[in-house]
Amino acid sequence: MTKDTTKIALIQMRCGTAPEKNFARAIEFIRDAARQGAAIVCLPELFRSQYFCQTEDHKNFDLAEEVPGKSTAALGEVAKETATVIIASLFERRSAGVYHNTAAIIGADGKLLGKYRKMHIPDDPLYHEKFYFAPGDLGFRAWDTARGKIGVCVCWDQWYPEAARLTALRGAEIIFYPTAIGWFKELKRDEPFSAQRWEDAMRAHASLNGIFTAAVNRVGREGDLRFWGGSFVADPFGEVVARASHSKEEVLVAKLDLTRIRQSQEGWRFLHNRRPRSYTDLVR
Prior knowledge:
The chain is α+β, with helices and mostly antiparallel strands. The protein contains 5 helices and 17 strands.
């Protein structure tokens, strides 16, 4: 690969009831992605466990861990072994009573580059995240890697154009979205609409910012949720360049032509033609 290309992998996986088994399987998926040439690998949201936010249960706080901590140390060894950048979504115990939904970004040398704490926290049927997570306080960021400058948002952040725009303005060439989103068992009539709207939102972020977006979801049924998979990568014109199925575990690998970013941003100049002083009502 040249400096103008990079290869990424999205790990679309099922998550069982045993966290250590999920973690071990995730590591094997990462090694598989590396064998296929991936330089950056992203795992789905909260991959160590099943999606526990379907209920409000204090016992689930036992799943939380420090970041950096045991998981980031183990993933750091894998990152160094495979020479890959790893994005891992974890349940962070920040301090007594303060928890975050956090993505750790681990460099190909095994060192922690940084972390992003999920900003937008939903509180919907089967998505009781406000019970567990405090909103993020680290801002929207981007990290330089040897294979591109990356940003990370997490799941519910994907519905907010402000999050994508600010991450793009930090210089991100690819925004990764670790996700856990699915259909309600009793709302099957909304299945095609919901999944398409989810994809359309992130394709729009890619197009309107002139960057790549990469969304990774889990699959399988957990309680009343059936996770719809559909992990995908969109290019800086909003076109899907790789897409996974809605039901199978997959290591979705995509080779990205980073020159497409300049073509989109210079051709359409959406970022150049912004008028920030006219947008002050957004923060009132």
